[in-house]
Amino acid sequence: MNRIPPAMRDVPYGKLVAAMLVLTAVISVLMLIPDWNGDQASTAAEPIDRLLDVSIVLSSFVFSLVMVMLGYSIWRWRAKPGDESDGEPIHGNTRLEIAWTAIPTVMVIILAAYSWIVLDDIEAKEGDPRRIEVTGQQFAWSFAYPEEGIESDELHVPVDEQIEVELRALDVLHSFWVPEWRIKRDAVPGAPGADIDDDFVVTPNEEGEFSLICTELCGIGHATMRAPVVVESRAEFDQWVSEQAPLEEEEPASGGQPQEAPTS
């Protein structure tokens, strides 16, 4: 028994596929022309941008598929003026249902695998990266350099050297984002010490002055929670380190009540 209604047997599938591919190409080009992310200033920026481009093309394909078929259906099977009769009963098409389930599933799996590869690549450590402790609190950032024994309210890093950032939040949820680095990670209260991995690595590869932005709504002063980021040569970084005040060492706890002086 042929379950395909007579009205669907003369559908110009070839023309619809051609229209879908043309629309996919047009949307992809229009979406890829704008520079959505801006300048690249880290080794992670290029693979992340490429992943975004692939996502845009795949999304354009799905959008074009849906819109072309929807537009053709509205035009082809529209009700004639004055026609108030019931629509023709149509049985579901099993092959069509399998296709529109399988195709998006395969696309999501491919995109997930590609994302995993990119994430694994940008999180790979190279040797022993320089460690920097970044602390967020309402509404400011602070930076500690344990190896250099200094702290600052500006983030200075040497160019072309991988750094390991250890994030922490003292009050509420914050989010670390330097747009040109493309890295964005949440700073979660309780970390480190809790079972939360807030560490990440990044290798800045362009010198310049950038801005660290909190992208997690953290209170009334959220929009002002920014900090300068300076990427400079190793010589300039060493000079900056030498000009900073050293970290203050915490005084050890007394460990008990003070003893009374002996009486004679």
Task: Please give a structural write-up.
- Helix 2 packs antiparallel against helix 3.
- A 5-stranded mixed β-sheet has the order 3-2-1-5-8, with no helix packed on it.
- The longest helix has 32 residues, at 45-76.
- By secondary structure, the protein is α+β, with helices and mostly antiparallel strands.
- It has 2 domains: 7-77 and 94-122; 130-242, Immunoglobulin-like (Sandwich), CATH 2.60.40.420.
- Helices cover 34% and strands 20% of the residues.
- The termini are far apart.
Radius of gyration: 29 Å
Taken from the alpha-carbon principal axes, the silhouette is: elongated
Strand order of the largest sheet: 3-2-1-5-8
The second-level CATH architecture of the largest domain is: Sandwich
Task: Give the helix tally.
Answer: 4
Total strand count, please? 10
- Helix share bin: 25-40%
CATH superfamily of the largest domain: Cupredoxins -  blue copper proteins
Q: Main β-sheet: number of strands, strand sense, barrel status?
A: 5 strands, mixed
In summary, what is this structure?
With 264 residues, the protein is an alpha+beta fold. The chain has 4 helices and 10 strands.
List the helices and strands and how they pair.
Blueprint: H1 13-32, H2 45-76, H3 94-122, E1 130-137, E2 140-145, E3 150-152, E4 155-158, E5 163-169, E6 174-177, E7 184-187, E8 199-202, E9 208-214, E10 226-232, H4 234-242
Parallel strand pairs: 1-5, 4-10
Antiparallel strand pairs: 1-2, 2-3, 5-8, 6-7, 6-9, 9-10
Which labels suit this protein?
alpha+beta; single chain; elongated; 34% helix; five-stranded mixed beta sheet; Immunoglobulin-like
